[in-house]
Specification:
Helix content: 25-40%
Strand content: 25-35%
CATH topology of the largest domain: Rossmann fold
Strand order of the largest sheet: 11-10-7-12-15-16-17-18
Distance between the termini: 30 Å
CATH architecture of the largest domain: 3-Layer(aba) Sandwich
Structural class: alpha/beta
């Protein structure tokens, strides 16, 4: 557990500091708050927070407001700080101060991700990682579409952990059920259909050092689109003619020059056999397979378990863990094999 010394000299402190401390402590940071004229010891105690001593050692000294250091610092405080995080974060969150008006500050997530990046080895610094994630939607009239149960959780975890490790992330995503991390080094490219996603991947693949194709892309889409809502009428059945969509993974695998390529396979039967064949057929460097019928591994789950096949013939098991932890282990393997 690493320690944060939080120094705030702004009137907004009583409004945002308690929530910030809670967010950091939930993520495993130990936080103490330095008193100031804006946030005296009594107010810190009333908020249920720990009041820090200027002689207290810390791993990170977090200033607020985030765009500049305090006007004055004591020599004792400077000497006690092991690491300084002045915080040049882009303010995105508007916070109401009641009758005092409002301020725009960095969100709790921005601050947390910046701190997490600080204690994470930056082994993807200088690399661009393209990630596809989420479902695609195949419309057949203005009211209806065909899709799948993907929420995008695994892809969001991969994007978050790659960004923490210093990568520039290109996140090409269908409609997500979870939000993307609010950080500057993740560039979001929203799409809807399999064709939209394929076009976006091909337009951006030359920018990538590594491509992780994690999206649940529809294999088929309707041959025809009705401009008007299809009426039920007296019919008892409705038949849709479907056409095959672009195979994005195979298309990238066949390029004469391509990035390090990682595929994902969500299987329900013969998981290992099907995944190993898919890796070789689509010319991947790695393929991560999971059994969507297993407990804790299906769509919308907070956890996952993967069997990873490698181009050199090896394979690795990633046991059941949170999707953030699983993503970290996938990135460890990518870093190892890219090296």
């Amino acid at each position: 557990m690493q320690r944060v010394l939080l120094h705030t000299a702004t009137a907004a402190a009583p409004f945002y500091v308690p929530g910030l401390v809670a967010a950091l402590e939930d993520a495993g940071w130990k936080v103490a708050v330095l008193e100031s004229a804006a946030f005296p010891k009594a107010a810190i105690a009333a908020a249920g927070l720990k009041c820090a001593s200027t002689k207290e050692k810390c791993d990170v000294h977090l200033y607020a407001p985030w765009d500049k250091a305090p006007v004055a610092e004591s020599d004792a405080l400077v000497a006690a700080v092991d690491g300084v995080f002045p915080g040049s974060l882009r303010p995105t969150c508007r916070l109401s101060l009641g009758r005092q008006g409002a301020v725009t500050i960095a969100s709790y997530e921005q601050i947390l991700e910046a701190l997490e990046a600080r204690r994470t080895v930056q082994d993807f610094a200088g690399k661009t990682v393209l990630i596809t994630l989420g479902p695609t939607i195949e419309d057949f009239d203005p009211a209806r579409y065909i899709s799948n149960r993907s929420t995008g959780r695994m892809g969001v975890a991969l994007a978050r952990m790659a960004a923490r490790r210093g990568a520039k992330v290109l996140a090409i995503h269908g409609p997500l059920s979870v939000s993307m991390p609010d950080v500057d080094n993740i560039e979001c490219i929203p799409v809807r259909s399999a064709k939209n996603m394929g076009d976006a991947v091909l337009a951006n693949i030359s920018r990538a050092d590594c491509a992780i194709l994690c999206a649940a892309v529809a294999d088929f889409s309707p041959c025809d689109y009705s401009e008007e809502k299809i009426k039920k009428g007296s019919r008892e059945t409705l038949m849709l003619r479907m056409k095959r969509n672009i195979d994005i993974l195979a298309t990238i695998g066949s390029l004469p020059t391509r990035p390090f390529l990682v595929g994902f396979a969500a299987e329900s039967t013969d998981v290992l056999k099907n995944a190993n064949e898919k890796m070789r057929r689509k010319n991947c460097d790695m393929l991560c397979a999971n059994d969507i019928t297993a407990a804790g591994c299906g769509f919308a789950s907070e956890t996952n378990r993967l069997h990873v096949f490698l181009r050199d013939g090896g394979n690795r098991e990633i046991p059941l863990a949170s999707k953030n932890d699983v993503a970290s282990q996938v990135l460890d393997l990518i870093r190892e094999k890219m090296s």
